[in-house]
Amino acid sequence: MQRHTLLATMPLLSGVLLTATLFSNVTTAQTLNSKDIQSLVDSAVKPLMAEYGIPGAVIGITIEGKQYFYQYGVSSKTTGQSVTEHTLFEIGSISKTFTATLANYAQIEGKLSLTDMASDYVPALKGSHFDEISLINLATHTAGDLPMQVPDKVTNNAELMDYLKHWQPSFAPGTHRNYANPSIGLLGMIAAQSLNKTFEQALEQTLFPQLGMTSSYIQVPSSKMADYAQGYNKQDIPVRVNPGVLADEAYGVKTTATDLLHFVEANMQMHPLAKPLQTALDETHTGYFDVGMMTQDMIWEHYSYPIDLDKILMGHTQEVVFGSTPVKPIVPPLAPQQNVWINKTGSTGGFAAYAAFIPAQKLGIVLLSNKNYPVPPRVTVGYQILTGIEKLQK
């Protein structure tokens, strides 16, 4: 894959909007002007950073295999170190897409079946509601109304098992979508154990190397700490993600724009991978539930494309993220589609991330920043940039 890297600098609180006519030049994919892309990205990202006081951000774009990176601001206010495409960011719940990939990989390796019930792999949950909750339910937020976070009182796996065994759902599995870290976290635990590894080992020793992601971690090694951005919460207090029960499986990946964009490309079949791994990636795009405004895949969410921004934003409202949404099972499940917008957001206390791609066009984007800010602006910026690139290509 070709890579084209551009450095963009800006004052952190600059609210200057570029007034260039971004779409005045008629171009093709082959003659796309990098300066036009730079202007497009600047005009979307600079106001965003100014509005939310974001110290540093990096945008990675892939256009038919050609990569572009745009870096803004600093990875730490203390050191003043500039952000680069090699800066490590926490990606929050985008980590869940790796968990789903690992579960598919384990199934292909014959270690589990996603149609089995969760309690088939966790004896401590026998006799609980997990006798009726499949691994697919865990991967699609349809296990029932589990809480979004593991309760604070749960501090180890024994306490987790006790909590889950006594949990009483309000909805039958497969009837409602409730976004929940315990759900995907349990799937990650099961998938890793089926491979006789810890979750950290399964990603760092199996998935990441096979994917060609050389700067991605659950636990950032000491030799890479200088590359690890400092996160900032909404009060501008320096924070990084805390360890916790199922944290690794649900939101624990730290990676670079370079690696995450490579992962997006792999999801669009743009890298030579061993067949089991490519199949595992592809099957995370299977549509299992109709949520109304979008289709729930294995963690990934997809929308028929082309689509208006307001329709994508409907899938990112507070009600959808934090509430219970009735769903309809898709029978048989919908095979991976090409003319779709596939996306996932991710956040931790001090970081915000977004990944989106359109397989039919081999067009994708990743947005990483070291401050947590609302989801809709992230989605909006990603949409503005990708659809802007489409206009530049015409």
Describe what this molecule looks like in 3D.
This protein has 394 residues and is α+β, with helices and mostly antiparallel strands. It folds into 2 domains: 2-92 and 215-393, Beta-lactamase (3-Layer(aba) Sandwich), CATH 3.40.710.10; 102-194, Methane Monooxygenase Hydroxylase, Chain G, domain 1 (Up-down Bundle). Helices cover 33% and strands 19% of the residues. The chain is built from 12 helices and 16 strands. The protein has helices spanning 34-52, 95-108, 135-139, 157-166, 181-194, 199-211, 247-251, 257-267, 275-283, 309-314, 318-322, 375-393, and strands spanning 2-7, 56-63, 66-73, 89-90, 176-177, 231-232, 238-239, 254-255, 287-290, 295-296, 301-304, 325-326, 328-334, 340-348, 351-358, 363-369. The strands form 4 sheets. Strands 1-3-2-16-15-14-11-10-9-13 form a 10-stranded mixed sheet, sandwiched between helices. It has a two-stranded antiparallel ribbon with strand order 4-8. The chain has a two-stranded antiparallel ribbon with strand order 5-12. A hairpin with a 5-residue loop joins strand 6 and strand 7. Helix 1 (34-52) runs antiparallel to helix 12 and helix 2 runs parallel beside helix 5. The protein is globular. The two termini are 23 Å apart. The relative contact order is 0.17. Residues 1-29 form the signal peptide. It catalyses: a beta-lactam + H2O = a substituted beta-amino acid. Keywords: Antibiotic resistance, Hydrolase, Signal.
Write a compact overview of the structure shown.
One of its GO terms (molecular function) is beta-lactamase activity. The protein has 394 residues and is α+β, with helices and mostly antiparallel strands.
